[in-house]
Every structure is written in C-alpha cells, then in structure tokens.
Amino acid sequence: MASTQAQILVASNRGPVSYALDETGTLKAKRGGGGLVSGLSAIGPEAGALWVCSALGDGDREAVRRGVGEEGVRMLDIPADVHEDAYNGIANSVLWFVSHMLYQTPLEPAFDAEFRRQWASFETYNRAFAEALAEEAAQGAAVLVQDYHLTLAPRMLRELRPDLRIGHFSHTPWAPPEYFRLLPDDIAAQLLGGILGADRAAFLTQRWADAFTDCCHAVLGPGIPSGTRIGVHGLGADADFLRKRSHEADVDERMVSLREQIGEGRKAIVRVDRTELSKNIVRGLLAYRQLLEDQPSWRERVVHVALAYPSRQDLAVYRDYMTEVQRLADEINSQYGTPGWTPVVLHLKDDFARSLAAYRLADVALVNPIRDGMNLVAKEVPVVSDAGCALVLSREAGAYEELGEDAIVVNPYDVSGTARALHEALSMPLDERAQRTKRLAAAATALPPAQWFLDQLDALRAAS
To answer: What whole-number distance in Å separates Cα of residue 345 and Cα of residue 330?
Structure first.
C-alpha cells in the first residue's frame, strides 16, 4: 500500500497498470496509455501523487491479494459481483446510455427492483473509492475524480474529509434535462448532488457544462447552494507522441498492407472506432453504400477502411451491434464488389499501429458519432496525416466545437446527408485539403494531455 500522505490524488475505474496471470501463475504487468497517464507523468515523481483505481479482472485481484503493485498506485479489490453491478449494470448500461441518449425509449429504460439492487452496488463501489481517498490524502490535498463511474464519490469524500480540494471531470457528454430526467427523480438528484460535492466540476466542452447546470436547476431547483465551480477543458491530441509513434517500423509495415488492400490509385475513407453504440458505425456504412449508389463514378475508385475494435463484449447489445457491423460490410461487398475491388475493408482486431497507418494514408476521415464527449480520433487524424485529410465530422461530437470550421459537418442521423458529405470530401482539391488539415491539427493540439491535466489541477487549487 502507498504511504498515506499523497498531495495529489487521481481516482478512476481503470488505472495506469493491469495484471494478467500466465499459465505458471506469474503476474505480468501491462502499462496503459491515454490522456490521464501522460497527464500525471507531467507533474513528476517528486509531487507525491497517488492513483486510486479498481481491480478489473482476476489478474488485478490476485495482484492486490499478493501485495504486488507499483509506487503511486493503489488498486481496490472491490468484490467482483459488486464491481459487475456497478460497472456493467449501472455505469455502462444506464449512465452511459443516458449521457449519450442511446435508449430505445418504447422498450427501455425500466427502472425496477433489479435496477435498485444494482444501484446499491454502485453506491458501495463509489464509497470504496471515497474511503480509500480519504485514507490516503494528506491534509488539504487535491483530488481529481474521473468520469461517470465515480459520480457519487465527490460528495461521499467531502463528508469524510472536508479539508480536501475535490475536482470531478466528466469525459462523456451530459444529457439535457428532459433526457436526464428519464432517471428516477431521487437517482437524478443523487447523481447531481454527488458531483456537486466537488469544489469544481469540469467538462470537455461548454455545451456539456451548460447541460449539467441546466439539469441541476431542473432537478434540484434554481437556488443550489453548492458553491461548485464549473470549468471546461477540451482534451487535445498529444502531437509529439503521435508524430513520433506514427513513423515507427511497425506502422510503415501496416501501411504497405493497407495500401495493398485498398489498391493502386484509389482513395480511402477511413474510420477508427471502438464498436461502441454511440460511434454510429452502422449509419456510416449505410452512408458509404448510399455514396456508391448515388455516385457510381466512385465505384472501384474508393475503399472504406473501417477499423472497428471490440468494445464491451460482455454486454449482449454490444455483441449484437458488432455482428450488424460485420453483416452490413459483407452485404456492401457482395452488392458492389468486383474481382479487383473490395469496397469495405473491415478490421475488428485492435491494432494501434494499423490505426496510425490508416490515419496517415486517409484521404477522408469519417467521424460521425451519435454523441461523443470529445472524440480524439477527429483530433488525431489531422496531426498524423501524410498528405492532408478531409474530415467529415458529426456536429454531436464534442470536437465539433473546436474543429467544426474546417471540417465537413454532418447530422449523424442523416444517412443521405452523410453520403453527400463523403462525396464533397472525396472531391476536395488537394491544396484545400492540406490547408484545412494544417488548421485542424493546430486546433486539435491546443491542449495536449499533460497541459490539460495541469490546467485542471491549477484551476482546482485556485477554486478552493
């Protein structure tokens, strides 16, 4: 266990390291990436920072039991059934669906006794974090609580340790009041009150921040005496890392094989996503099919490279979605394909080097989420692109606020409109494409992860 005097603490469901047991019973550690990891590294080891996270699998739990860990990380062994209820039952099947407005409302949600049982686990899970943070934090320490999994923790921690400076950051969108109020009234109030336990609540865009305040006023009444400050920090792409990593040998190899799959002289429409319901991959494929139908001149001249990596495969609705992506890609290929041309090249196995290769060679990047807190793919492609890339971007992505001027903007539900946008993007003159890409890359890297993290820390210290 870490020493109990951390000055800066980060709390998130997933930590910077995970463990797997090999066949000999040896634990193997694997480092994670992402904005938080590079953000925390910016403060340096002498800052006395501690990351509190959850054990996510058998390897993690075994590591906690054996006392295996690394400096600056405390992993919580929350009982597997409690974690399953909190993480899959509530966080991913309720809170994610509300924030991304994904419910098919004639059938769902139905907040019944089973929901209440899972909600109790969600409270237990959040309390475990609050208690660990309270135990580990030095007097007056700064605590940065991350994301929708830990919406209740700020209030619980405030009650245990009023001396702490507490921030909460939401990496998802926030739903407008009329959608947020699908939740039972007491649950809606508890979620908002949980975040209002923080000194500062921060969001990726002004739009999500405004939606949160609107919900507070609608659910809790206009005169909320919380004193919580609201902030916005638009996480940007890590340009230095991406530019360096995208020119390593494995990426060059992937480019060769992708170019072979695309074929000589053809243009590439690229998408890189997890097969997450909000990413809207199915409508993207439908729009591509519409393009081939409406603009037959593109047949045999363009390929849609869809890198759709598995996500949340322990939830049936996600498995079904992945099956539909595969089915539709096969259908387009059998309808339009010719012996020398495969219209859709679909890859379902996660491969970061291949993603970077696709970024580099894309003529068009398709980023059309139904709703997205930010969407870093939209920011990464312009940074890595070799020859410039036209960006087709959903107005429902957080990135739209920063990139909308130089993107071709679409309504994610409008399949015909997206097909027209793809045609416009494919037809864009190369010099215009290069100029737009330059401006997109500048906007995309305005707040790299390290600075994004430090800005939150500074704002939290100033707010208290």
So the answer is: 10
User: pLDDT for 344-394, tens place per residue?
Assistant: 999 998 899 999 999 999 999 999 999 999 999 999 999 999 999 999 999
- Confidence band, pLDDT 50/70/90 cuts, at residue 4: low
CA distances from 168 to 16, 26, 226 (A): 18, 36, 14
The answer to whether 220 and 334 are in contact (CB under 8 A) is: no
Residue 48 to residues 3, 6, 129, 136: CA-CA distances in angstroms? 9, 5, 19, 11
Strands across the sheet containing 408-410: 344-347, 302-309, 267-274, 364-367, 390-394, 408-410
Does the pTM of the predicted model rise above 0.85? yes
Cis amide leading into 412 (omega within 30): no
Q: CB 226: neighbour CB atoms within 10 A?
A: 16
Residue-level pLDDT at 1: 43
Q: Is 80 exceeded by the pLDDT of residue 181? A: yes
Q: Compute how many other C-beta atoms are within 10 angstroms of the C-beta atom of residue 72.
A: 17
According to DSSP, the β-strands at 6-11 and 267-274 are unpaired
Give the CA count within 13 Å in the CB-facing half-sphere of 40: 25
Question: Picking from 134-143, 196-205, 316-325, 353-362, which range would have the lowest pLDDT averaged per residue?
Answer: 316-325
* Six-digit token string for 223: 């005169």
pLDDT tens string 195-223? 999 999 999 999 999 999 999 999 998 76
